[in-house]
Design brief:
Strand order of the largest sheet: 3-2-1-4-5-6-7
Strand content: 15-25%
Radius of gyration: 17 Å
Structural class: alpha/beta
Oligomer: single chain
CATH class: Alpha Beta
Order of helices and strands: EHEHEHEHEHHEHHHE
CATH architecture: 3-Layer(aba) Sandwich
Distance between the termini: 38 Å
Shape: globular
CATH topology: Rossmann fold
Bound molecules: NADPH dihydro-nicotinamide-adenine-dinucleotide phosphate
């Protein structure tokens, strides 16, 4: 039976590409989203991938949602923690809700989504967890102290969880994307993109969502059992760590 994969934020942007790539490779995928019903319905009708609506910043919602996926599809063997938001501003102007909103969605969600499935993975002796961080969690970014803290936290979480579960057939890894051609990045004014952003990227272009999905496919493969606690940077050479 094909393995069951849950992708948070799996209906739009990078997550949609991850969901599609996993489904194409034969995994049984559940794509989780927060509230954009229109995008989720379009995604579902185009791909046939089942969608589930819950808030990854809410532990009880995650526990209930993951239990539903398990009863619909079977035990979760692959978890891709991709859902994320930005609420950018300089710290001296940041409101508490901007700080806590980002930390809850981008970092606390890793606990909320992983805790309900990790014991089952340990019992079954197999699991693949991929956490989508960001280049800005590695290097910091002005106006993103909340986001960078959450994304750096993803990396510390990953390394610890990887150590705790290494003997149980479970791998835990990070992908740290650079600038990817999602709607958010495409909305950046053309001259800012061409004069400021692209010159920082040695490859000379934005990344494509499929290039992140390819990294996920590589890390979740049964054959990738010796790769754990790693951070795979997919950033066109923008930073080399
Ligand atoms: P998008 O904004 O295009 O999509 C975000 C997805 O996450 C949506 O499906 C959204 O659901 C879901 N989501 C957001 N909040 C929640 C929540 N509380 N509960 C459940 N689902 C939620 O994001 P991107 O594709 O741009 O980014 C995906 C990941 O990649 C993020 O973690 C981001 O930080 C990271 N990243 C992105 C980069 C880029 O260049 N785009 C660069 C580096 C990292 P809904 O549709 O309902 O809103």
């Amino acid at each position: 039976m094909a393995r069951v994969a849950v992708v948070s934020g799996g209906t739009r942007g990078i997550g949609a590409a991850i969901s599609k790539a996993l489904a194409k490779a034969g995994y049984r995928v559940a794509a989780v989203y927060a509230g954009n019903d229109e995008a989720a319905a379009k995604f579902k009708s185009e791909t046939g991938i089942p969608v589930y609506k819950w808030d990854v910043s809410d532990y009880e919602a995650c526990a209930a949602g993951l239990a539903k996926v398990t009863s619909d599809l079977g035990p979760v063997e692959i978890l891709v923690n991709n859902a994320g938001i930005t609420r950018d501003t300089m710290l001296h102007k940041m409101k508490p809700e901007q700080w806590y909103g980002v930390i809850n969605t981008n970092l606390n969600s890793l606990f909320n989504m992983t805790r309900p499935v990790i014991e089952g993975m340990r019992e079954r002796g197999f699991g693949r967890i991929v956490n989508i961080s960001s280049i800005n969690g590695q290097k910091g970014q002005m106006g993103q102290s909340n986001y960078a803290a959450s994304k750096a936290g993803d990396i510390g979480f990953t390394k610890s969880l990887a150590q705790e579960n290494a003997k149980k057939g479970i791998t835990v890894n990070v992908i740290a994307p650079g600038y990817i051609a999602t709607e958010m990045v495409k909305a950046v004014p053309k001259d800012v993109l061409e004069k400021t952003i692209l010159p920082q990227i040695p490859v000379g272009r934005l990344g494509e969502v499929e290039e992140i999905a390819r990294g996920v496919l590589f890390l979740v493969a049964d054959e990738a059992g010796f790769i754990t606690g790693a951070t795979l940077t997919i950033n066109g050479g923008q930073i080399m760590v």
